[in-house]
Design goal:
There is one protein chain. The chain is of the alpha+beta class. The chain has one domain. Helix content is about 20%, strand content about 40%. Strands 2-3-4-5-6 form a 5-stranded mixed β-sheet, covered by helices on one side. The longest helix has 12 residues. It is elongated and about 90 Å long. The termini are far apart.
Length: about 150
């Protein structure tokens, strides 16, 4: 969402609103095959002169490519984050508003990407290797200790 600073100065704070975003631009990034239902609840608080704190509650569903089978797996994200926006370039840990518009879209995209797993799979591997190792150990028992096997 984009807000003109003049518009924010007229709004009674804190201001909360819900929005549904189209973030289809994420499709094709890494293993993202679809982005559905990006719902964001934003609360804006004034934090000083032309400084605003935005709290985001983000929920969405990503269609991610299975790292083994390449099938699509639906992955739900529910996350929260807080960002500080300011026109003062000396403020630490804040996003600098370089124009007269506060744009929250980049922060929302960054939070979704940070919550997305690097890889995902529904594939279950069989543990055949352990069975082969145990059978091999039984075949290689030292004859001097073979009688001790019955004690266990």
């Amino acid at each position: 969402m984009k807000w003109a600073l003049a518009q924010l100065n007229k709004i009674s704070m804190p201001y909360t609103f819900d929005e549904c975003l189209d973030l289809s631009e994420l499709v094709g990034f890494e293993n993202i095959k679809s982005v559905n239902n990006v719902n964001v609840r934003t609360t804006i608080r004034e934090y000083g002169d032309d400084t605003y704190q935005c709290e985001f509650k983000i929920s969405c569903e990503l269609g991610l490519e299975d790292s083994v089978t390449l099938e699509i797996i639906n992955y739900k994200i529910d996350t929260e984050t807080t960002e500080l926006y300011t026109t003062n370039p000396e403020t630490l840990d804040a996003t600098i508003i370089e124009t007269s518009t506060l744009d929250t879209k980049e922060a929302i995209i960054a939070q979704i990407l940070s919550e997305k797993p690097v890889s995902i799979s529904n594939h279950e591997f069989e543990d055949d290797y352990q069975d082969e190792d145990e059978a091999e150990e039984e075949d290689n028992i030292n004859p001097a200790f073979a009688s001790l096997k019955d004690l266990l």
